[in-house]
Amino acid sequence: MRCHVQVRQQLEAVYDDVRRRNPAEPEFHQAVGEVLHSIEPAIAAHPEYLEAKILQRLCEPERQLVFQVPWEDERGEIHINRGFRVEFSSALGPYKGGLRFHPSVCLGVVKFLAFEQVLKNSLTGLQLGGGKGGSDFDPKGCSDREVMRFCQSFMTELYRHLGEDTDIPAGDIGVGTREIGILFGQYKRITNRYESGTLTGKGVGWGGAPVRTEATGYGCVLFVRDMLAARGQSLDGRQVVVSGSGNVAIYAIDKAQQLGARGVACSDSTGYVVDEKGIDVDLLRQVKEQDRRCLDAYVETRPDATFVPGRSVWEVPCEIALPSATQNELTAEAAATMVRHGCVAVGEGVNMPTTPEAVQLFIEAGVAFGPGKAANAGGVAASALEMQQNAARESWTFADSERRLEQIMRGIHDRCLCTADACGAPGNYVVGANVPGVRLGDPTTGYAGAAAPIKQADPPPGDGIQGLPVDPASTSQVAGGHPTPKLADRPQDRQGTSRPTSLSVLASAVMLAEQHLPLKVDTPELHCSQSPRRCIGRRAASRVDCGHCDRDGLAVGGAITCAAA
Question: Among the options 96, 111, 120, 132, which is catalytic?
Answer without folding.
Answer: 132
